[in-house]
Amino acid sequence: MTAGGGTATTDAVAVVVSAVRDGIMQGRFAPGQRLPEADLVALYDASRGAVRAALAQLENEGIVERERNRGARVRPISLQEAVEITEARAVVEGLCAAKAAVKATPDDHRKLRELGVELAATVENSDVVAYSQVNQQIHRAIRDLSGHETAGRMLDRLRTQSVRYHYTVALLPGRPSVGLQEHLEVIETVCAGDPVVAEQRMRAHLLSVVDALHQLDANLHQW
Q: What is the DSSP code string of 24-71?
C-alpha cells in the first residue's frame, strides 16, 4: 500500500480496519480520541481511499463516529451499553465455546492450558495489564477454534466497543482471581470436549463480568 489517493482494495481496507481495532483494544486509541485521516495514512502506510473506507466501515460497526468538518474519533460508550454488549457476548461466545469443545484437537488443548498457566502467573504477579492481554488471548483462541466466522465478525465489533470497561473491571479488588478461576473452568470444559457445559461456563463467566460492571457502576455512584 502507498500513501495518497487511489482506489482502495478490499485487502487494504481490511488491514486498516484491523489495525484501528487493535489500537483501541490495546489502548493506543482512547475513547473520544480523534483519528485524523492523514495520521492514519502515515501510521499504516495506507492510501487515503483505504483509510476513508476503513473509517466508514468502523462507523457502521459503531466503533468510531464521524462528524462533518471534524473527522472521525473513537466512539465513547456508556457503562449501560457495555453491560448490554457483554450480555450479547455471553450468548455469542457461549456458542463459540460449544463449537470449540467439539473441534479442538489435543494440540489445541495444550495451547489453551498454556494460556491458563500464563493467566495464573499474571494474577500471582498482580499484573493487571498482562492479565487483560492474556484474558483477550483466551477468548480469541476459543473463538478461532470454533471456526464460526459470523460469530467472529460480531465479536470483533462487540469486544472492541467495550474493552475499556473490561480493563477497569479487572482493577476491582479480587476480580482477577475470580476471572482466573472462571477462565480455567472454561478451558477445561472445552478440553473435555463437552459442548453443553463449555457453553454454560462461558456464558456464566461473561454474566459474572456483567455483575462486576454493575458493581463498577455502584462504585462510581458513591463518589
A: HHTTSS-TT-B--HHHHHHHHT--HHHHHHHHHHHHHTTSEEEETTTE
